[in-house]
Design goal:
Chains A, B: Keywords: ATP-binding, Ligase, Nucleotide-binding, Purine biosynthesis. Two copies of one chain form a homodimer. With 228 residues, chain A is α+β, with helices and mostly antiparallel strands. Chain A has two domains: 87 residues, Phosphorylase Kinase, domain 1 (2-Layer Sandwich), CATH 3.30.200; 124 residues, D-amino Acid Aminotransferase, Chain A, domain 1. The first copy, chain A, contains five helices and 16 strands. In chain A, the strands form three sheets. In chain A, strands 9, 10, 11, 12, 13, 14, 15 and 16 form an eight-stranded antiparallel sheet that branches. Chain A has a five-stranded antiparallel sheet with strand order 1-2-3-8-7, covered by helices on one side.
Chain lengths: 228, 228
C-alpha cells in the first residue's frame, strides 16, 4: 500500500488491487484555531472528527449508490477510519460543484444586488476551481471547456447528477428536521469509459444546514444525522 | 428634452420624439488622476476625450448596423458631442459582456492556474453584473435566469451577437495594425419585441488593444483608429 497524497483532512493510499484507500484524519480546516469548513488551511484537530465525517460519508454514499448514481465509493471501515474507492481522475487540477437551495454565503456576497440573504434558490448549481491562491474562483461551462478542464457535455451531466444527489441529501436531512441551505461536491472521471462520478466525501464540513433559525455546526450535524 | 441620468462619462436625456440623447463628457474613469478604463470612479477630465470616444463609437456602430446586427444607434452629432439612440431596457440593473481573444486581465487573475498571460482564447464570452460595490461579479447563464435578469435564450443570443460584433471590431482594428485582446459591451432590450441589441458605446476605454508588444492607451487608440 503506497501513500500517494497527503491532504488537509485525508490521506490517500493506492492498494495492490487497483483501488484507493482514503484515510480520514481528525484535522479540520479553520483559521486561528476555529473550525471553518470553507477555510483553506488546517486550523485544528478535533478528536473523532475523522470518524464522524467518514460515518456520514458512508451513510450518504450508500444511499446515492442505491439510487444508481455513479460514485467512487466501494466500502468503509469505520474502525480504521478508511474508505475504499475506485480510482478517479480529476477535472483539471480539481473542481468543486456547489448546489444552493438558499442565497447565502458567497452567492449572496456576489449577487446581493438581486437577492436577500436566505432567499430560496431552485437547486442552483455552480462550479469553482480548486485553487487556494485564487480563492476558488467561479467558472462557466464555456471557460471550463476552453481551458481543457471539462467538456460542455460533462458539465451538463455533472449538473444533473448534482441535483439528483442534492435531493437525496436534502430528503435524508429533512427526516432529522434539518434544512440544507447549500452543499459542495467533488466529481471526477471514473472507469474505462471516463464517466462522471461523485468522489471525495459528504460530511458536515461540506454543507450549510439549519434547524429552524439555528445554524448547525458540522460536528453537531454529523451527530444529529447519525443518531438513531 | 429632459435629463434622466447623470453617468460617470455620459449624461442621458429623453427627447420628445421618444428617442434618447447621450451626451459624451470629457470625464474619464480612473484612480488618483490616472486614466483607468476599468476603474469605477471618475478620475480626471481630458479635453476632447468625449468627442474622441463618440467618434469611435459612431465609426463602429455604423459598421455594426450595416452588418444587420441590432443596436440602439440612430445618429451622432460630433459637434455637440451627442448620440441619438433608441430607448433600451437594461438586463436587471445592467450587465457587461466581455469578449476575450487573449487570457489577460481578470480572466488571467482568476484562471492563472490553467493559462499563461497572453494565451490565445477563441472568442470567449462572459457576463458580469454592473455592481461597483461588489466589483462587477462574474455570473452564469443559470444564475442570470434564476435571479430574473435574463433568460437562457437571451444569454445565447447575446453570446452570438457579441462574437459577430467582436469580429467586426477586430477586423477594423487589424486594418490599423492593432490587435484586440479583449472588449466590453453592453446590451439591452430594444423595441416592442424586446430584442437583444447592442447599446452604450464602443470607445477606447472599452477595450484592451496592442500594436505588436505595445499596449495602446485608449486615447491613442482612438487617434490611431480615426486618422485617415
Amino acid at each position: 500500500m503506497e501513500k500517494i497524497y497527503t491532504g488537509k483532512t485525508k490521506d490517500v493510499y493506492r492498494q495492490e488491487d487497483g483501488t484507493y484507500l482514503l484515510k480520514f484524519k481528525d484535522d479540520v480546516t479553520g483559521t486561528d484555531g476555529v473550525f471553518d469548513p470553507g477555510a483553506n488551511t488546517v486550523g485544528l484537530s478535533i478528536e473523532g472528527a475523522g470518524k464522524a465525517g467518514l460515518r456520514l460519508t458512508q451513510f450518504f454514499f450508500e444511499k446515492i449508490n442505491e439510487a444508481g448514481i455513479p460514485t467512487h465509493y466501494l466500502a468503509a471501515n469505520i474502525e480504521q477510519n478508511t474508505m475504499t474507492v475506485k480510482p478517479a481522475r480529476p477535472f483539471g487540477q480539481g473542481v468543486e460543484v456547489i448546489l444552493r437551495y438558499k442565497a447565502v454565503g458567497s452567492f449572496h456576497r456576489r449577487y446581493g444586488k438581486y437577492c436577500n440573504s436566505g432567499d430560496p434558490l431552485d437547486g442552483y448549481v455552480e462550479v469553482t476551481l480548486k485553487d487556494d491562491d485564487r480563492n476558488d474562483p467561479l467558472i462557466t461551462d464555456e471557460a471550463l471547456e476552453m481551458l481543457g478542464i471539462m467538456t460542455k457535455e460533462e458539465y451538463k451531466t455533472l449538473g444533473q447528477l448534482t441535483r439528483k444527489i442534492g435531493e437525496i441529501v436534502k430528503d435524508e436531512m429533512a427526516k432529522k428536521d434539518l434544512e440544507l441551505y447549500d452543499i459542495k461536491f467533488e466529481f471526477g472521471r471514473v472507469g474505462e469509459d471516463n464517466h462522471v462520478a461523485l468522489i471525495d466525501e459528504i460530511s458536515g464540513g461540506n454543507m450549510r444546514a439549519y434547524r429552524g433559525e439555528q445554524y448547525i455546526e458540522p460536528l453537531d450535524l454529523e451527530k444529529m444525522m447519525l443518531e438513531a
